[in-house]
Specification:
It is globular, with a radius of gyration of 18 Å. With 244 residues, the chain is of the alpha/beta class. The chain has a seven-stranded mixed beta sheet with strand order 3-2-1-4-5-11-10, with helices on both faces. The chain has a four-stranded antiparallel beta sheet with strand order 6-7-8-9. It contains seven helices and eleven strands. Helices cover 25% and strands 35% of the residues.
C-alpha cells in the first residue's frame, strides 16, 4: 500500500480544497470554539486555508497555527486577514513553539491524516507541551464504521451527472487501522486520480493518547451542536483539558 507524508495532502488538494472539502459545519464549529475558548489565545493544528481560523480572527481572537503544506498556507495568505496569522510550516506530529496557548483545536478528521499510532500520540504530546495549565484541546473526527466494507473494500459514487462521474475507492486494513483511498474523476476534461491515506482511531484510543500526554477528557458530543454522543453517532467532538 501507498505511503503518504503530511505535506502531500496539500500538494494534491490545495488548489481545489475550499470548493471540494467544505463539510458544511463551519459556522457551527466556529461558534462552539469561540464559546469554549472564552477569548483566550488559540492554536489550530492543520490550519489549512483558514476555513475556521479566519472567522475566529474576525471575532477578535489571537490565533496561530501549524500546517504541513506550504501550498495550503499560500491559499490562506491570499484571503483577507490571512497574512496576519502566524503559521508554522511543519509536521503537527512533532513541533515546538515558544508560545503557550489557552485553547487548541484539530478538526475535520485531520488527526487521521497522521498515518501511524506513534505519530498521533506524538501530536497529542506536542500540543500538550504548548498548552497552559488548564488549557483545552478540541478534536473532531468521524467514528469508524466497518459495515461499509466487503472483503475490506468499497467503491462509492460521490457525484454523478450527464457528462461526469466521481468515484471513491477504498481498501481497509483493519490490522493497521488504515484506509487507503483513491478518488477518481471522469469529466469531459479527462480523468484525474488523487490518493489519500488515513489511520483511524476509536474514541477510546484517542482518549488514551490524550491521557498519555497529560490531558483528560472533559466532554464528548456527537456533533457541533453538543448533541449527545451515542453508539449511533457518526462523529464526535471531544474536549480535553491539561491538568493544572
Amino acid at each position: 500500500m501507498m505511503e503518504f507524508d503530511p505535506a502531500r495532502f496539500g500538494a494534491l488538494y490545495a488548489d481545489e480544497y475550499d470548493d471540494l472539502h467544505n463539510p458544511g459545519t463551519t459556522d457551527l464549529s466556529v461558534d462552539l470554539i469561540a464559546e469554549l475558548a472564552l477569548g483566550g489565545k488559540l492554536f489550530e493544528l492543520a490550519i489549512g486555508t483558514g476555513r475556521v481560523a479566519l472567522p475566529l480572527l474576525s471575532r477578535g481572537f489571537d490565533i496561530q497555527g501549524i500546517e504541513a503544506s506550504s501550498e495550503m498556507v499560500t491559499k490562506l495568505r491570499e484571503k483577507p486577514g490571512g497574512d496576519t496569522i502566524p503559521v508554522i510550516i511543519g509536521d503537527m506530529a512533532s513541533f515546538k513553539t515558544e508560545s503557550t496557548f489557552d485553547f487548541a483545536f484539530l478538526v475535520f478528521n485531520t488527526l487521521f491524516n497522521l498515518t501511524s499510532q506513534k505519530a498521533q500520540i506524538s501530536c497529542f504530546e506536542s500540543i500538550a507541551k504548548c498548552l497552559r495549565p488548564g488549557g483545552q484541546f478540541l478534536v473532531e473526527t468521524f467514528v469508524p464504521d466497518q459495515r461499509r466494507f466487503r472483503d475490506h473494500k468499497d467503491v462509492a459514487v460521490s457525484r454523478l451527472n450527464a457528462d461526469s462521474v466521481w468515484l471513491e475507492a477504498v481498501v481497509h486494513d483493519p490490522v493497521r487501522q488504515r484506509l487507503n483511498f483513491q478518488r477518481i474523476r471522469y469529466t469531459p476534461d479527462g480523468m484525474r486520480i488523487a490518493p489519500l491515506l488515513m489511520r483511524y482511531a476509536w474514541p477510546s484510543e484517542i482518549d488514551l493518547m490524550a491521557q498519555l500526554a497529560g490531558l483528560s477528557l472533559v466532554n464528548r458530543w456527537g456533533g457541533w451542536q453538543r448533541e449527545t454522543f451515542t453508539a449511533d453517532s457518526k462523529m464526535h467532538v471531544s474536549l480535553y483539558e491539561k491538568k493544572e
